[in-house]
Each structure stands twice: as C-alpha cells, then as structure tokens.
Amino acid sequence: MKKEEQKAKQTAKVKDKGQNDLKMKNQIASKNLKGKSKNVQGVKRKKEEVEEEEEENSDESEDESDMEEDDSDVSDDSDVSDSGEVTGYTDHNKDWLKPAKSGEADSDNDDSEDDIPDDFSDDELSDDDSDEDDENSDEDDEDLLPVEKKAKKLEKKQARDKKLAEKELMTNITQTEKYTLPSGQEVEQETNQPPDITLVQNRIKEVMGVLADFKEKRTEGRSRQEYIGQLRKDLCTYYSYNDFLMEKLMQIFPLEIHEFLEANEVQRPVTIRTNTLKTRRRDLAQALINRGVNLDPIGKWSKVGLVVYDSQVPLGATPEYLAGHYMLQGGSSFLPVMALAPQENERILDMASAPGGKTTYIAALMKNTGTIFANDANKDRAKAIVGNIHRMGITNTVISNYDGRIYPTIMKGFDRVLLDAPCSGTGVIAKDVEVKINKDEKDIQRCSHLQRELILAAIDSCDAKSSTGAYIVYSTCSILVEENEAVINYALKKRNVKLVPTGLDFGREGFVKHASDPYMCASKREYYNPGFKGFLPSSG
Amino acid sequence: MRPLTEEETKIFFEKLSKYIGENIKLLLDRPDGTYCFRLHKDRVFYVREEIMKLAGNIARKNLISMGTCFGKFTGSQKFKLHITALDFIAPYAKYKVWVKPSAEQQFVYGHNVMKSGLGRITENTPQYQGVIVYSMNDLPLGFGVAAKTTQECRRADPMAIVSFHQSDIGEYIRSEEKLV
C-alpha cells in the first residue's frame, strides 16, 4: 500500500513539473500533461480498490463523511471558475491559454451536471481540479512544500473516487437485498424462452436464502408456497428432474435438497469387495497396487472393502478379477448383508439376487457352508449370477428363476431372507440419470405394490421357529417413503413380525411418523453412498 | 435333474481323468460331506448331497444352476469341460504349464500358449495330455492340451505352440451367457 502511495506521489511530482511547463509552453505540452495525470489516476484507482475491499464493513459512517467531502468538492468546483480568473496568469499567457482552458471547463461543467463521470472526462476534471486546488492552496498556505500540496490533492481525489465506488456498491447491495419473486408475466415470458441457467442458479440461491429466514427476508404478500413452488421449478430446470420426483425429494429433504441434488451429480467412487474364500484383503491390495491401481481400505466398518481412486487397468478384467479374488460392488450393498449377518450352516434365501453381489458376499460370510437359494425373476439377469458365483468359487448356491411372489409355494423354512427389492432407483440417480425424468406417480405405485407383495412372500418363506435366525432384511436403492417405510408398515400390519435393530451403527433413523409401530426407529435410512435403507424386521 | 447314466459317467470320467488322473475319487470321497454329480439340461453339476436334495424343490425349467457346473454333453454325446470346473480340477492337476506374465494376457484372451510365453512345464508331460495353465504366481488361468512333450518343448522355436487353448478364465466375461 505504502509503495503504491509513493508511486502515486512520484508520478504526481512528474505532473507538477508538467504544470510548470504548462505555464510556459504551448497547448501541445498541456496535452502531454493530461496524459501523465491520467497515469496518476490509474495508480490511485488501484489503491482505491484495495481500500474499498477493506473498508466495506464501515459503509455507513464513510458514506456520511463522503457526503461532506462531496460538498467540499462541489465548492471546489465552483472555485474552479473563480480561481480560473484569479490564477495569477499573466495577461498574455491568459490569452493563448484560454482556448484550451475553455474546452476543459466545458467538460468540467458536464461532469458536475451529469454526476456520472466516465473515465475520460473524470481525468480531465481531476486534472483541472488539481490545477486549481494547487493554486488555491498556494494562496492559502504558501509554506507548504509542493509534495504536501500534492498529497492534499491526492486525498481529495481518493475521497471522490471512493464515493463513486461506494455508490456503485450500494446499488449492487440494494439489488441483492430486495429479492422478489418473478411475477406471473415474467414467468410466462420465461417459459417461452430457453432457460437462462445462470439466472436460474442465482434465483435458486436467493430463494433458498429467503426460505432459510422467511420471516425477515420474505416480500410482503408472497406466501411460502409461492417461494417453494418457484424453487421447485428452478431446481427442475437446473438439474433436469421431472416435477413429480422433485416434489417428493423436497418433502424428504426440506433443508438438504441442494446438497442431495449436487451429490447426485457426482460419480460414486468405485469400490471392490475382497472374496475371502480365495484371498485376503492385504494380498489383493498388494496384487492390485502392483498393477497400478490406487486404492485404500473402504473404512473401519468393513474388513473386506477397498475403494479405488484411479486405475491404469480395467478393474473388471484383471487376472485377479477373472480368478474371482474380488467383486466390483458398491459400498452400500455391503450393508444389507452385514445386517443380515448370515451364520454358517444356515439356509438363506436371496429373493432378488441378480447380479449376485450380495449373494456372493453371503456365501463368503458362510464360508461355503449351508445353502443359499439365489432367485431372480429375470432369466437373463440370472445368468449373471451364474457367472459371478462360479468365478468366486461358491459351491453352496442354488440359482432359480421364479417370480419372488410365489416363492413360498415352492419352498419354505429359510433361516434368513434377504429381500433387496426392485425399486425406482431414486437413491442411485448418480448411477442412472434416466430416473430423473422417467419416473412418475404410477411407477412409484407399481414399485410399491410389488414390494408389498414381495415382502409378504419373504416373510412367508422364512421359518419363524428357526433356532438361529428368522430374520428378514428388506432393502432398496430408493429413498422414497412409499417404497420403504410404507412397505415395512404394511408388513407389520399384515404379518406377525416386529422390527429389530440392524446392528449397523451408522445411517439415519427411519421416518417414524409414518409408522404406527414404535419400533420403526429401528429401521435405518442410509445415505452413505447411494441412498439406501436397510430394515430388519424379525418374524414371529 | 438326474444321476448320470453308465454311458455318460464313462465319457465324463474319461475326460476328467485326462486332467486329474485317478484323483477323481478324491472328488467323490470327501471328508466334509457327500458330493455327487447330477445331470440337468445336459449340464453336469457337482454338488453336495443336501443341496442337491433341496434343489429338488425347484422345477426343472426354473432351475438354472446348483453347486458347480463342470461342463456339458454336446449333441454328439461328447463331454465339454467348462472353465467353471477349474476350481476343482486345478488342485488335483497332474500336469501343469506356467506362462510368463507377458503371455498371461494372451492366454486369457483365448490364444494358444507359445514357446516364447512358456515359463515352466511339468517334467515328462506326454503329447496331447490335458494340462492346467497357471500364471507365474500360481493363479490358475485355464486349461489346455499339451501340443508337445516336455523334451520337444526344450528345442522348439519361440513361435511354436506348446499348449492348445481349451478354456480360460476370460470366458467369465467373454461368454457369460454361455457358461451354463
């Protein structure tokens, strides 16, 4: 800062010299001078900007002082014409100086009238002023050194610049403070045009701000519903969701909607699960690192998971993958299996198992003992189970192709049942962005209905008198209440089951208010990776 | 799902013995339970008895797989061993071929093993003997048939084939839908 000031003074000195020249030399010289004074202005402006940033906080007090200075400026301006006469030019000088002077004086007048100085005229004005001020101060206080006079002048200029800048700033502030919703006409107009993304983004931010402190920031006469409606519309435009889904999401995340939508835009990290039947995590990690894969353990909660940051080889085609040492699997899909906690020598049913990620994890936990029935309604997808199970070296699994709803008529007496139900996929939008647009009320209802039938089938397949288990885990990759809490609630009413804790110490409590059963809080909403929820009702 | 007939058993065991010799009986007499071979839709499955019995609940057309699939009978009543059997064949294999890391990829993509890619080979391997192909860090990659005896391999030129490709673990990706 000091340096700049010094620089300004230095240049000011140059100008001073120029002034002397002006007194003696012709018009061309005076033009040169103007150029130099412009330089000064530039330097000062820079400095001004820095100061503005620092002093933005004390706006009001300065504003007042500025006003005072403003007055003084005006008086200075009026002096200009007077002192123009009284400058003490010699008569013949006055004669040849006059034409140039008059031109400048004109611009000066313009400035004072408009009060909106553009750079050019401002320069001339300041140049002019400095001349006059100089003369004035000469008269007032002749003891002052030329440097001191310059300093005085500089201060004045700074004050004026600051005032202008502040005016600008104030206009900006008032714009942001008084945010109003667009009127009906504006909205209509907007619908006819392609959406302006930056405008929409701005409006989202503003409306969120208003909604966060509605009492203070709202515009009189506009209801909260109007704000929310506008926000929903803008979010739909900005993130390209359909209106129905956005409404649902906003109900679930009244506060965190923005974070949720942003999270959906981000790609999930690639995670793999070690096949403990064939290798150990440490050995696998070493083998993969040797192939140029950058990875880390997934976290304290899992002993088999690895998260992959980047890889030089395709992870789905390394010899280790082909030999069944690991499985490409989302971190969140470990959780239903961990909640199921299968024991050795049990009989387990996985009702909707394709492509077999969770099934192979169950088998690994059971160390290939007992029996697993992996079922999937889709024959083509069931083939993926076959591949994965054989690759991972799992021998205790029977793969069937039934509609899960009729499974109790085929077989009963399972110790544990995992129902990873087919769903709308609203929790894994990052994986499949189609969901944003193509899901509507009907789809959700259809899903929900199917899920209700499936969960009853799952409960019926389970052996309530099992000595080791009789647990059912229901999980989906949807975050909608209709597909989760509502389904559980239905099962609680229809069958003699109760909810038990999942044994997972993270995730959020389920939405209790939807349930008549106080145990609903035992269900988990899990937003770890994709939105995912595990429930663990136990039958009997 | 039914047990194999005499004829089928003969063909199947003949094929299996090419790779593991008399070790077949180790597959049948296991200390951890009774295991059996069952035929289902021309496929031969190797499965524990209790699981097999439970799988009887599933209708024939809905049963896709149980235990481990060893291979299938072709239309001309020959037996084709599948890569899925590798887990049970590899530990009992009598003759093995190790391939260098540079040739690993080649084999996993379905090519024969060349002399240049040959790392090691079991002593006294006869010609046309079924062999298990390993990577140098003892990861079973698939199986094939020895094209040359061990002696011949020593003085074969680098581009000569030492083992014909039969099946490899790359098939898990290449032909997932044809596995069973």
From TrEMBL, chain A:
It holds the Pfam family RsmF-B_ferredox. PROSITE patterns: NOL1_NOP2_SUN (PS01153), SAM_MT_RSMB_NOP (PS51686). The active site is at C477 (nucleophile). Residues 1-161 are annotated as: Disordered. GO terms for biological process: maturation of LSU-rRNA; rRNA base methylation. GO terms for cellular component: nucleolus. InterPro entries: MeTrfase_RsmB-F_NOP2_cat (IPR049560), MeTrfase_RsmB-F_NOP2_dom (IPR001678), Nop2p (IPR011023), RCMT (IPR023267), RCMT_NOP2 (IPR023273), RsmB-like_ferredoxin (IPR054728), RsmB/NOL1/NOP2-like_CS (IPR018314), SAM-dependent_MTases_sf (IPR029063). Its main location: nucleus. Belongs to the class I-like SAM-binding methyltransferase superfamily. RsmB/NOP family. This is NOP2.
From TrEMBL, chain B:
One of its GO terms (cellular component) is nucleolus. PROSITE patterns: PUA. It is found in: Nucleus, Nucleolus. It comes from the Eukaryota. The keyword Hydrolase does not apply. One of its GO terms (biological process) is ribosome assembly. Keywords: Nucleus, Ribosome biogenesis, RNA-binding. GO terms for molecular function: RNA binding. The keyword RNA-binding applies. InterPro entries: NIP7_N, Nip7_N_euk, PUA, PUA-like_sf, PUA_sf, Ribosomal_synth_fac_NIP7, UPF0113_PUA. SUPFAM superfamilies: Pre-PUA domain, PUA domain-like. Residues 95-170 form the PUA domain. Belongs to the NIP7 family. Interacts with pre-ribosome complex. Required for proper 34S pre-rRNA processing and 60S ribosome subunit assembly. This is 60S ribosome subunit biogenesis protein NIP7 homolog. It comes from Mytilus edulis.
